[in-house]
Structure to design on (490 residues):
């Protein structure tokens, strides 16, 4: 589980204070659209939802949900039954901190954010008393190994491991899951996050610009920033958060007072989230295109995380492993100074509202961690069914409605060669890391040729140079080859 970091130095405290100050400032400043679930002038009951459009594993409670109009439809049904009208106000933010600030001010009713911000949200709400308390009521997207977070460096950076960032600056949103991943991983590499590296507390977009300008050596962030920058050719994945092998996820939080006063509205929201989740599973490409259109993100990047076999698994149930992860996150967040008030997790995590709308399958689904959107079909080049999710990938050919399923890394290379021979253009290629199973862009992977392996496993993809080097070091005769060379020789 996540390891607790004990050093509480002045530098780390200063960064935490800066993060807390930004929340307080947001609360004082207010929102562009104020108000909670009060009545508008025309008598309609207004429900305010805070979300993060570009944090794309929250889409079933945010961007996709909004574009589908599922919540509005559910509220319309509720309104007809009650003889009243409801309106929804959607407020978009870059991170969870301002959503928390507005919830504490009573100006947002329902919000979605990552695991670390969720804990900060619950802690600060409990500190303000019963009237301000919040509850985590569902999950949006998760990855049981932590691969939704990562550290990237410039594409031409000489860094090969996190240890190579010693003496440099790393951009992160302090208190976010991306920041937490970096701090924990850095210590594993013998780095003191307070002394050996300077953490710049920046919003994701600011950090991305700083990386391009060369003012920081690395960027530690959450989905979709690592994939976005790598897909653009502006960065390289240095560290996969999945190497920590601990869960990371995003979830939905609600003001407890609102849930008590408007339980049917909350249930309508959760029903709509289930609607959006099922839509995403049934229509992964259309869902990715919808999110891409709303956010301006490349659809290929969205699909990396949200598509079939994606890095994010979408399931609203609150699983025991995710509960356990939150419990172990609390000491860590205390140690870095961003969780300064006590937090009682028992009343904060409340899946009773979700259970009411989910139905009899809840206990069965809460016990499963299988991806409901696994890659399926027949590999047309290797002529066999796609079965193993740890090896299955996809080749997305320009002009085709959906990516082609491929059975394994070598079959992916053969499929790419076949498409090239047809004279067609490839939009994107996806394949899991040979060691960690983290899905990544195959053309951005580091490929290794192992002559001692079986013919069908001769070429192996790794999301990071470090991962590839570890394999080469332990397999005599294995060597790194370029992606193009692997395609030619597979």
């Amino acid at each position: 589980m996540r390891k607790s970091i004990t050093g509480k130095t002045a530098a780390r405290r200063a960064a935490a204070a800066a993060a807390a100050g930004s929340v307080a400032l947001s609360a004082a400043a207010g929102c562009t659209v104020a108000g909670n679930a009060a009545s508008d002038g025309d008598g309609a009951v207004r429900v305010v939802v805070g979300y993060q459009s570009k944090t794309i594993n929250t889409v079933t409670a945010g961007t996709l949900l909004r574009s589908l109009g599922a919540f509005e439809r559910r509220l319309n049904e509720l309104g007809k039954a009650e003889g009243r009208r409801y309106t929804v106000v959607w407020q978009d933010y870059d991170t969870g901190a301002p959503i928390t600030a507005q919830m504490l001010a009573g100006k947002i009713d329902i919000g979605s954010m990552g695991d670390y911000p969720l804990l900060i949200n619950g802690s600060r709400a409990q500190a303000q008393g019963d009237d301000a308390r919040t509850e985590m009521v569902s999950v949006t997207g998760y990855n049981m190994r932590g691969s939704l977070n990562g550290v990237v460096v410039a594409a031409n950076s000489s860094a090969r491991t996190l240890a190579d960032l010693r003496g440099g600056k790393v951009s992160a949103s302090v208190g976010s899951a991306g920041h937490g991943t970096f701090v924990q991983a850095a210590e594993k590499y013998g780095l003191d996050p307070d002394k050996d590296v300077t953490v710049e507390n920046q919003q994701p977009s600011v950090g991305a610009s700083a990386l391009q300008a060369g003012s920081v050596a690395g960027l530690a962030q959450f989905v979709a920033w690592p994939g976005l920058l790598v897909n653009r050719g502006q960065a390289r994945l240095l560290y996969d958060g999945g190497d920590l092998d601990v869960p990371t996820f995003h979830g939905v939080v609600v003001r407890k007072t609102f849930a008590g006063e408007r339980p049917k509205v909350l249930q309508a929201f959760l029903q709509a989230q289930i609607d959006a989740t099922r839509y995403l599973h049934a229509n992964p490409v259309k869902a990715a295109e919808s999110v891409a259109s709303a956010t301006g993100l490349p659809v290929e990047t969205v699909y990396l995380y949200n598509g079939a076999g994606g890095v994010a698994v979408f399931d609203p149930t609150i699983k025991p492993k995710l509960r356990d992860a939150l419990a172990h996150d609390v000491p860590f967040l205390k140690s870095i100074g961003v969780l300064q008030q006590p937090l009682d997790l028992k009343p904060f995590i409340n899946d009773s509202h979700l259970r009411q709308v989910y139905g009899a399958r809840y206990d069965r689904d809460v016990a499963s961690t299988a991806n409901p959107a696994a890659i399926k079909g027949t590999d047309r080049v290797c002529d066999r069914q796609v079965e193993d999710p740890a090896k299955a990938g996809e080749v997305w050919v320009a002009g085709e409605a959906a990516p082609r399923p491929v059975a394994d890394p070598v079959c992916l290379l053969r499929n790419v060669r076949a498409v090239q021979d047809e004279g067609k253009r490839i939009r994107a290629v996806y394949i899991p890391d040979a060691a960690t199973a983290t899905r990544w862009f195959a053309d951005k992977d580091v490929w290794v040729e192992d002559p001692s392996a079986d013919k069908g496993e001769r070429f192996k993809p790794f999301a990071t140079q470090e991962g590839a080097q570890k394999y080469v070091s332990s397999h005599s005769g294995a060597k790194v080859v370029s992606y193009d060379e692997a395609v030619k020789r597979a």
